[in-house]
Amino acid sequence: MRAPTPSAAAEIVAAHEAQLCSLLATLTTNLARSMQFRIADSRTQVQELALSPAFDAVAGAFARSHDDNRSCRTSFANCDHPLCSARATQNGRGRRTAVTGQLRSAALTARTRLESLSKARDAGIVSRLETARQQVAMAAAGLMRCRR
């Protein structure tokens, strides 16, 4: 489409400009809303992970380790025999070492899962942003064709 005069061309552009601005405002609002929902969903996932049994298991293991350590110290303090004292100390160290390994493993598993979910969330956000950008570009190109 070709306008006969510059004034007519300006009127055509002004009409399409209002439509384009309206479409861009709608797309921006939709994108912002979508991002807010994704962020809220990601927060929910992080909260669910924080409240997952893995973290309870870690807290329980810490408590058991603390109780075992206290028990060993009590046994050690109440025993007068040199061999008894040495065994109590060795048993306490062995339990502490085993629990520490379990705690590290559980923490590493939880951390890995959290990183995986974060990467998936970020990839989803990037994908939706790219889709929205493409839609805006296509809408702008369509409006440009309408002007001609």
Task: Write a structural description.
The protein is built from three helices and no strands. It has 148 residues and is an all-alpha fold. It has one domain (6-147). Helix 1 (6-50) runs antiparallel to helix 3 and helix 2 runs antiparallel to helix 3 (82-147). It is rod-shaped and about 110 Å long. It starts with 5 loop residues before the first helix and ends with a helix. The mean pLDDT is 78.
In short:
The chain is mainly α and 148 residues long. The protein has helices spanning 6-50, 53-78, 82-147.
Helical element count?
3
Class from secondary-structure proportions? mainly alpha
The outline comes out as rod-shaped
Separation of the first and last Cα atoms = 4 Å
Largest sheet: none
Instruction: Provide the low-confidence segments as ranges.
Output: none
pLDDT averaged residue by residue: 78
* Percentage of residues assigned to helices: over 70%
Number of strands: 0
